UniProtKB/TrEMBL annotation:
Described purpose of this protein according to its UniProt entry: Catalyzes the addition of meso-diaminopimelic acid to the nucleotide precursor UDP-N-acetylmuramoyl-L-alanyl-D-glutamate (UMAG) in the biosynthesis of bacterial cell-wall peptidoglycan.
Species this protein is from: Oxobacter pfennigii
GO CC annotations on file: cytoplasm
Binding-site positions, UDP-N-acetyl-alpha-D-muramoyl-L-alanyl-D-glutamate: 30, 152-153, 179, 187
UniProt binding sites for meso-2,6-diaminopimelate: 376, 400-403, 452, 456
Underlying gene: murE_1
Protein name, entry field: UDP-N-acetylmuramoyl-L-alanyl-D-glutamate--2,6-diaminopimelate ligase
Recorded metabolic or biological pathway in which this protein acts: Cell wall biogenesis; peptidoglycan biosynthesis
Keywords, comma-separated and alphabetical: ATP-binding, Cell cycle, Cell division, Cell shape, Cell wall biogenesis/degradation, Cytoplasm, Ligase, Magnesium, Nucleotide-binding, Peptidoglycan synthesis
EC number: 6.3.2.13
Post-translational modification: Carboxylation is probably crucial for Mg(2+) binding and, consequently, for the gamma-phosphate positioning of ATP.
Length: 481
């Protein structure tokens, strides 16, 4: 495609060279540049793309989009923009000829429940015969392929590559998790969502957003590019969101009547039973996922499918047919009278929800193993410690993904919360050893909750990433007993 066509809808100034040249591809990382490419310089948090212009040109870049002027080799076109992340998103969409326009997009944002909600929507739309893709934390699912996802929401250019694949496979719907990082960093700029879903807003990611207000405003951006908003009005920030947007809203709730609402909720170890209400219609739902929070996820999924014209009968069947979501409330029977649950709770609210759910049916004790991720919001650590200790008989503090941080230092941040509650606890930094200890402590009727890493099959340490498949490790320990 010609550079001038790529730049057609982007405010820019040509500093040097011509835009009448053919572009073979786009890269935002100099290491991915090939002959004839357009290289987009991004000033990032760790590095500055402008420092790699020479590398990009050596690898064959013919044109550069930049924010800062500097010396450029001859023969290269230099284009200045005000915001290169925005330019990357718009240029990538233009280069691939707007593939997302062929797919109906449903975006899900909120602190917790995004992944689960996308799986529930997929289950409903699948049974209606649609070809449905998912982009999210666990993986990017396109057709029969599950592509590894390193981000919850991919970079804008990578998104356009994925949409192109969907176009080829004649995908009807793409259900995507839209993280607050992606909204702030313009990964989803230029996309148009059929509906946007807001699940909830609780403490997380303040390392990145700094204030709760900024975090809220990042989430709000999804509704600037959605046709309909699906909003949880039991959540304080959901109500605030509703007051701040001008598009049509479908509300959902459990505590009060909303457009779509749940009544008669009953939670057991394996199911959440409730009545789904919409206008005068009612359906009894047996959702094979325990937890009041999963009723909310089901309501979000139902409301978005209602907005797509799906019948309540199909919604009921789709919700009841779900096979579970990897690493979310996944139950492993120990064969010794106690159970082990793997769950992705990595925020205070997530941890509180899963532990309260377990407390609703546990016969014996709740033993919780958890840690906190390194290089992430430090303010949640003490609070998670307190939540775990309060809602468990025994809390075992261990490591999550320490990343560049010292695991002991992360644990030191968690401990004041645990100690405050004055209950039995252990500190075992090695996660495998921590799981072993919990399993050795397990007695008839106990539930051991292994929180934080869910579907992840690795652990990110300072200098390396090691294999860490929690499900496999738990089964191995149980088999060796
Ligand atoms: C804070 C954040 O989100 N950062 C993301 C951001 O990094 P950045 O723009 O700061 O990039 P950088 O590393 O400073 O480099 C700047 C530029 O120089 C380029 N570069 C760099 C080196 C080189 O040799 N050549 C070169 O061209 C880089 O490609 C980049 O374009 O853009 C990068 C490229 O897309 C991302 O990989 C990176 O994700 C980091 C690693 C990350 O951990 N992000 C997490 C926090 C995240 O995004 N999480 C959310 C939310 C999860 C949730 O739901 O809770 C997610 O959506 O996954
Ligand atoms: N609606 C909800 N409200 C509160 N907690 C929830 C909700 N749904 C799930 N959880 C808890 O949060 C954990 C993560 O759920 P899920 O993966 O669906 O959220 P997510 O928003 O996709 O998370 P991430 O930000 O990591 O992508 C679950 O394992 C569960 O403990
Ligand atoms: N999407 C979340 C996932 C956290 C999962 C937890 N295991 C951790 O590593 O902190 C994040 O990137 O903050
Ligand atoms: Mg997710």
């Amino acid at each position: 495609m010609k550079l001038k066509d790529i730049m057609m809808n982007i405010n820019h100034t040509i500093l040097k060279g011509t835009s009448d040249k053919e572009i073979e591809g786009i890269a935002y990382d100099s290491r991915a540049v090939k002959e004839g490419y357009l290289f987009v310089c991004i000033k990032g948090f760790k590095a500055d793309g402008h420092d790699f212009i020479n590398d990009a040109v050596k690898k064959g870049a013919k044109a550069i989009i930049l924010e800062k002027e500097g010396h450029l080799p001859d023969g290269v076109t230099a284009i200045k923009v005000g915001d290169s992340r925005m330019a990357l998103a718009l240029a990538s969409a233009a280069f691939f000829e707007h593939p997302s326009k062929n797919v109906k997009l449903i975006g899900v944002t909120g602190t917790n429940g995004k992944t689960t909600t996308t799986y529930l929507i997929k289950s409903i739309l699948d049974r209606c015969g649609y070809n449905v893709s998912i982009l999210g934390t666990i993986s990017n699912i396109i057709g029969n392929k599950a592509i590894d996802a390193s981000r919850t929401t991919p970079e804008s250019y990578d998104l356009q590559v994925l949409f192109s694949e969907m176009r080829q496979l004649k995908t009807h719907y793409c259900i995507m998790e839209v993280s607050s990082h992606s909204l702030e960093l313009k990964r989803v700029a230029g996309l148009s969502f059929n509906s946007g879903i807001f699940t909830n807003l609780t403490r997380d990611h303040l390392d990145f957003h700094e204030t709760f207000e900024n975090y809220f405003n990042a989430k709000l951006k999804l509704f600037k590019s959605s046709k309909t908003a699906i909003i949880n009005i039991d959540d304080e920030y959901g109500r605030k969101m509703k007051d701040n947007i001008e598009i049509p809203v479908i509300t959902y709730a459990e505590k009060e009547r909303a457009d779509v609402w749940a009544t008669d909720v009953e939670i057991t170890a394996n199911f959440s039973k409730f009545i789904l209400n919409y206008k005068e219609e009612k359906k009894e739902i047996m959702l094979p996922m325990p937890g009041r929070f999963n009723v909310y996820n089901a309501l979000a999924a139902a409301a978005s499918c209602i907005s797509e014209g799906i019948s309540l009968e199909d919604i009921k069947k789709g919700l009841e047919e779900i096979k579970g979501v990897p690493g979310r409330s996944e139950v492993i029977d120990s064969g010794r009278g106690f159970t082990v649950i793997i769950d992705y709770a990595h925020t205070p609210d997530g941890l509180e929800n899963i532990l309260n759910t377990v407390r609703e049916y546990v016969q014996g004790r709740v033993i919780t193993i958890f840690g906190c991720g390194g290089d992430r919001d430090k303010t949640k650590r003490t609070i998670m410690g307190e939540v775990a200790a309060k809602l468990s008989e025994i809390a075992i503090v261990t490591s999550d993904n320490p990343r560049s941080e010292d695991p002991e230092a992360i644990i030191k941040d968690i401990l004041p919360g645990v100690i405050k509650i004055n209950k039995e606890y252990f500190v075992i930094p090695d996660r495998k050893e921590a799981i072993k200890r919990a399993i050795n402590l397990g007695k008839e009727g106990d539930v051991i909750v292994v929180a934080g890493k869910g579907h992840e099959t690795y652990q990110v340490l300072k200098d390396k990433t090691i294999d860490f498949d929690e499900k496999q490790i738990i089964n191995e320990i149980l088999n060796q007993m």
